[in-house]
Amino acid sequence: MSKKPSLSHELTEQLRVREGFDLASFDRGARPGLKGGSSAAEDLLVEQGGILDELQEKLYAHGRSGGTRSVLLVLQGLDTAGKGGIVRHVVGLVDPQGVSIRSFGVPTEEERAHDFLWRIRRALPQPGRIGVFDRSHYEDVLVARVDELVPPDVWESRYDLINDFEAELVAAGTVVVKVALMVSYEEQGERLAERLERPDKHWKYNPGDIDTRLRWDDYQEAYQAVFDRTSTPHAPWHVIPADDKRYARLAVSQLLVEALESLDLDWPQADFDVAAEKERLEATRR
Amino acid sequence: MSKKPSLSHELTEQLRVREGFDLASFDRGARPGLKGGSSAAEDLLVEQGGILDELQEKLYAHGRSGGTRSVLLVLQGLDTAGKGGIVRHVVGLVDPQGVSIRSFGVPTEEERAHDFLWRIRRALPQPGRIGVFDRSHYEDVLVARVDELVPPDVWESRYDLINDFEAELVAAGTVVVKVALMVSYEEQGERLAERLERPDKHWKYNPGDIDTRLRWDDYQEAYQAVFDRTSTPHAPWHVIPADDKRYARLAVSQLLVEALESLDLDWPQADFDVAAEKERLEATRR
């Protein structure tokens, strides 16, 4: 029997949130769907690169030819969960021209003057693009809930608004891929310690990260509510064990591959007369 | 003596436009500064990737820590010159999070209602970013001149306006890297033929490309004027022989490396008390 590292076709399903999902008992150090360890994950990610690259180019070509489909990758996770690494090592595998990345921090004054989805709608990917949200509208039911930035009835009402909003996106042709990277409490502690230890990582550290860490249990509860209330058939959540960064990157690459494959795109038909153009070109010969 | 492929430190200087530069006699199949052939260029580009990656991360860290420097890569070239390939294979070497890519096509109605630099100013990279312009304000003295989209006195006045604008950018902390990719007439013909031959390339073809090809000599003249009038000490032009795509990519990667090195950035100093934060983190241990 072959011991070749490989990725199970069921990986995506194994990561998908289903009825009764329990975050508290979720193993953040596991590697579901992967035959092989962390370095196998790294090797497989290189292979995924070629696959993703062609699929993405087809999506781009589709958009350039009047097509309306797009993909939106929503990345959520607490500090140090590895969102930046996903952008760098997974999204970085494809042509940057076909990608639009937006990160959502504390809302500006202008953003606060509008409803919480306003800034999100403005950042949606154009047809033919892969949009990436580094944090997203889910912050409005995570930090907003934990830090009581708005009254309970306001954040309470947002879960349904989010579901409606995403249904609208999907109906308009966007495949919505929702990913929550979940690190363990211990691993987060080690990653923060590394940022404090290494001068080349200081810029990634923010004293606010400790304040958030002190609210760990509240955040876990808020995430559980997100999974319970916004994992819909049209836009399910995928929860990724993220203590092993390389596994997490491979898993997200597979989710992207499947999202792109689900579009089932082919190269666009020429909208000009190929034979006539060949003649015109021939006539330019000097 | 070693036959190892290598890149000369003088490559950049060899490509820089100087007094008396003559586009008509420029060899578009040459590989100045490269010891080795096309496949050597490909190997060296992989090495450049690691160098670029770290330099770009330092720039990003700088921006995240209140720094104001940025890099703007201006890409010009006729159809099929390889601008898209530069974005994909060179810009694609770095973290997409630190890059903003804008391509400038036919101006929209809103853009036409403003002066020609209006849409350009709105697309400038934020501090800490590498901005990439796929076509740029130079279209306003290229296609605008060749196709007489504006009267001669209008495009005539633009060279000085462009120089002033770029001087302003440089004074504000942006390194401006101007790159013109130059293919030969024959090579352009072959690349257009390939786009017509291969159904997976049809989407890249536009019948307008032949119209532009028919104005080849006018475009060469317009490019010569661009080099004569806008290659300034603060923002010089680099003309890249682009018949060999792999050489062109390597050359542009080297220009980017040098631009980033010229910023001479180090990792930002912590703006918090490292020892105190270590204690706060330690106190979160469970």
TrEMBL record, chains A, B:
Superkingdom, natural source: Bacteria
Write one Pfam family the protein is assigned to: PPK2
The protein's UniProt keywords, in alphabetical order, are:
Transferase
One annotated GO biological process: polyphosphate metabolic process
Q: Which Gene3D superfamilies match?
A: P-loop containing nucleotide triphosphate hydrolases (3.40.50.300)
Q: Which GO terms describe its molecular function?
A: phosphotransferase activity, phosphate group as acceptor
Q: Does the keyword Nucleotide-binding apply?
A: no
UniProt cross-references to InterPro entries, sorted A to Z: P-loop_NTPase, PPK2-rel_1, PPK2-related
What range(s) does the Polyphosphate kinase-2-related domain occupy? 50-262
List the PANTHER family: POLYPHOSPHATE:AMP PHOSPHOTRANSFERASE, POLYPHOSPHATE:AMP PHOSPHOTRANSFERASE-RELATED
The name this protein carries in UniProt is PPK2 family polyphosphate:nucleotide phosphotransferase
Record lineage: Bacteria, Bacillati, Actinomycetota, Actinomycetes, Micrococcales
